[in-house]
Amino acid sequence: MMNSNSQRLILVGGGHAQLSILRALAQRKMDREVTLITPGRYQMYSGMLPGWMAGHYTLDECRIDLLPLAERAGVRIIQSRVAGIDAAQHMVQLADGSWLGFDQLSLDVGSEIDTARLQAAGARLLPVKPLEHFVAQWPRIVQAATGKSGYRLIVVGGGAAGVELAFAARHALAARARNAEVILIASDHGLLPGHAAGVKRRVRVLLQQRGIALYQAQALGDEDGVQLSTGAHLAADRILAATGARPAGWLAQTDLARDERGYVLVDARHRSVSHPDVFAAGDVCARTDVQLPRSGVHAVFAGPVLAHNLLAASDAPLLRYRPRHKSLYLLATGPQHAIASWGALSAQGGWVWRWKNWIDRRFMRKYGTYPAR
């Protein structure tokens, strides 16, 4: 049960799950002092990032302005990064060293890209996260490719994010750059681990049709590009990293219970197993009862549960987030075309893109219809 004396709620990060909390606060008047700590006022909707890269959306169509959402909810925004948490003392440390007290805390800061094996590539390397940095850099890549014949872009990461990045990049560069080359490197875990064989076949065929070379090997960054575990070396103008996730480094300095990889451990109610006044959702956490893939799908679906549990009256039961056995993935493939993956089933075509576009725009209408100021 919630502590009836809890009045100060701090939301760390403006991720997809926190949007549900802002929406719930805007719909009811609460005797709470609520603060949102976020590095910037905009939250990029990751589901539309490949479409933006490919040129199908403007930036404003696929990012959410948190400021008007917070204003409607009566929430104060602090534009800063978090440097630490002392959960036992109910304190959050900001990047400038200052501390804020809380009665309840909600974490939704996502994860980082593990680029340890690629760091030697230096300035050539661009991780897909943090999204705001990637979004700022992508137009510069397109401009550089436009001005150079034979520009080579390498995407490292064979999961859904890497596949969509490669397709989007190929579509964008094919229209603007002469002889630009896009290469996708999937690790020895294979292409699209966790997806059905039929989905993988569809992706392989489309990669070949779109002229995207696929390598399956471990990649090690160097000053010219990447060295593959097969012995081959691939020079690159830029390297996009969509490799494995890792938790934010500052979490290691907190007293929250974490799993062996460093993610915040939560129960089925998305409450910290060590500090009951702390909740978490999205990529920052790991469940103790089920293994959730690191996908925005679960952050979106866990959002309403998180909002209920944080804002519930002291005598109200807490809800559990019960993930579905199968999640629907709609993979954008560059042009207005997509592949659907749902368990053992798959399909593809322009109609799948239109379906994805409808779902994504519906999400944006739910949270992104407020004008920027």
CATH class of the domain at 114-243: Alpha Beta
Output the CATH topology of the domain at 114-243: FAD/NAD(P)-binding domain
The gyration radius over C-alpha positions equals 21 Å
Number of strands: 25
Q: What is the topology, as strand order, of the major beta sheet?
A: 5-2-1-9-21
Query: Could you list the spans in which at least 5 consecutive residues all have pLDDT below 50?
Result: 1-6
What gap, in angstroms, lies between the N and C termini? 38 Å
Strand proportion, as a percent range, falls in 25-35%
Helix content: 25-40%
Arithmetic mean of pLDDT: 91
For the sheet with most strands, the description reads:
5 strands, parallel
CATH architecture of the domain at 114-243: 3-Layer(bba) Sandwich
What is the element layout, followed by pairings?
Layout (H helix, E strand, L loop, with lengths): L7 E5 L3 H12 L5 E6 L3 E3 L4 H6 L8 E3 H8 L2 E4 L2 E5 L4 E4 L4 E3 L2 E4 L4 E2 L11 E3 L3 H16 L5 E5 L3 H15 L6 E6 L10 H13 L3 E4 L2 E3 L3 E4 L4 E3 L2 E4 L3 E2 L17 E3 L11 E3 L4 E3 L8 H16 L16 E5 L5 E5 L2 E5 H18 L6
Parallel strand pairs: 1-2, 1-9, 2-5, 9-21, 11-18, 12-13, 12-18, 13-14, 20-22
Antiparallel strand pairs: 3-4, 6-7, 7-8, 10-19, 15-16, 16-17, 23-24, 24-25
Helix pairs in contact: 1-3, 1-7
What can you see in these coordinates?
Among the domains are: 8-39 and 80-111 and 247-311, 3-Layer(bba) Sandwich (FAD/NAD(P)-binding domain), CATH 3.50.50.60; 114-243, FAD/NAD(P)-binding domain, CATH 3.50.50.60. It has eight helices and 25 strands. The chain is an alpha/beta fold. Helix 6 links the parallel strand 13 and strand 14. The protein starts with 7 loop residues before the first strand and ends in a 6-residue tail after the last helix. Mean pLDDT is 91; it is low at 1-6. The chain has helices at 16-27, 49-54, 66-73, 131-146, 160-174, 197-209, 296-311, 350-367; strands spanning 8-12, 33-38, 42-44, 63-65, 76-79, 82-86, 91-94, 99-101, 104-107, 112-113, 125-127, 152-156, 181-186, 213-216, 219-221, 225-228, 233-235, 238-241, 245-246, 264-266, 278-280, 285-287, 328-332, 338-342, 345-349. The chain has a five-stranded parallel sheet, covered by helices on one side. A five-stranded parallel sheet has the order 11-18-12-13-14, covered by helices on one side. Helix content is 28%, strand content 26%.
